[in-house]
Amino acid sequence: MVLGAALLAGLLGSMATSVQAATVATVAWQLRVKDGEGRPLADTVVELSQPGVAAGTPRKTSVAQRNKTFVPYVTVVPTGSTVVFPNEDSVRHHVYSFSPAKTFEIPLYHGDSVPVVFDKQGVVVLGCNIHDSMLAYIVVSDAPWQAVSDASGVVKFDLPPGTYQLKLWHPRQQQPLPEQAIEVGSDAAVQTISLPVSAPKPVTTMDYSY
């Protein structure tokens, strides 16, 4: 009878632990990224990590070519992710990258592309061998949480309360910004951070007919 009671207590304890683990509360946390003059900064890669937390799960996504422009301009993916490059234009494109994190070429084509696996952490710069004005970036990240700021400079996460390491990257940042620790409390919160960037380059107006 004593053994039965002990066994029952153990089972109940295990069930309580499982229920508690399954119902860990998350908090709606937002980060607003601004440039050095206080304006919203879109296309900022935001990475959050914690010791002992595994990297994000690889996924499949796309970077399209539309109106002779890469869309989106900045993408972040977990290491090991697959990216396709659909050409939605009436002209052919030749997508390439010479970046150490991923070197590849997709020769002239229309429509769907072969998939490319991004298996090394780092920044990958994309270009088109036919249209020099086309430029985009893929950031390959080992961080468990990652996102790109929207037109308002905002990223949103649902996070368990705790301490995180925050890392930011932007194509026009003037210098690397050191990682910093942030605290996520038990209530929804919005934090703001400034990232000095250089002025955007003038938009190329050349009208390609090919």
UniProtKB/TrEMBL annotation:
Keywords of this protein's UniProt record, alphabetized?
Answer: Signal
Indicate whether Signal appears among the record's keywords: yes
The family database entries (Gene3D superfamilies) matched by this protein are listed as:
Cupredoxins - blue copper proteins
Q: Which residues form the signal peptide?
A: 1-21
Question: Which protein, by its recorded name, is this?
Answer: Methylamine utilization protein
